[in-house]
Amino acid sequence: MKLSQFITFMSEILGVEEKTIRMIIRILREAGLFTTGARGVNAPDITPLDAVRVVIAVVASTSPSRAVRDVKYFGALKPDRRDEDAASIWGLAWVDENKTLEDTLLDCLSNRVPYDEISLGMLHLSERGEAHIATETGRQDYHHREQWQAVKDEYSASNDKPKNYAVLEAWEAMHRISNTKVNRSAEISLAELHQIGFEIIGWEVD
Fold first, then answer.
1. b/e map 155-181, b = 16+ CB within 10 Å
2. How many CA atoms lie within 13 A of 110 on its CB side?
3. Which of 26, 110, 116, 195 is the most exposed place for a label (fewest CB within 10 A)?
4. Is 93 helix (H, G, I), strand (E, B) or coil?
5. Is 188 exposed, middle or buried, given 0-12, 13-18 or 19+ CB atoms closer than 10 A?
6. What does the CA dihedral 107, 183, 71, 59 come to, rounded to 10 degrees?
7. What is the model's pTM?
8. Segments in the chain below pLDDT 70
């Protein structure tokens, strides 16, 4: 799929204006987060990763100017494993705990996850920086695992454990600072993500 077709298609499926999609792509491209190449008939095809990043940018924020921030932030999140009991009860079996959210969404879009596992699933992103995937069979929350662990280790030497955890919670809340006063959240169905992938890649139907 070429860029002009992609812009029109994404505008329709995501319910935003074409000019918004075009602006997001331009900003991502300038940051090296979107495929670049020749224009016109020699232009490169859109990649699945391009599509995932546009989806994150659209769902995460009302402003295209935040596209780079959102793609970098949400794309790097990993499955939350701070509570192993909760993970075993509510987690999703098909989610690889070592894959980033960007990689997991790429798997969904690229037909590497059984469709019946994601057909009724939703990706939820909030302006506060919270993210989770929910399906009929469970829910997987995401966070910045390595950074959280590093901050936790820094404070682990102290004997004031309640204060330490309060600091950790405050740090995670403040790690993603927004200029907006509205705590916005938005969703996209994983079935729509799968549909985007089919239109871009195409695959044989079983």
1. beeeeeeeebeebbeeebeeebeeeee
2. 12
3. 116
4. coil
5. buried
6. 50
7. 0.81
8. 38, 40-41, 84-90, 145-185, 204-206
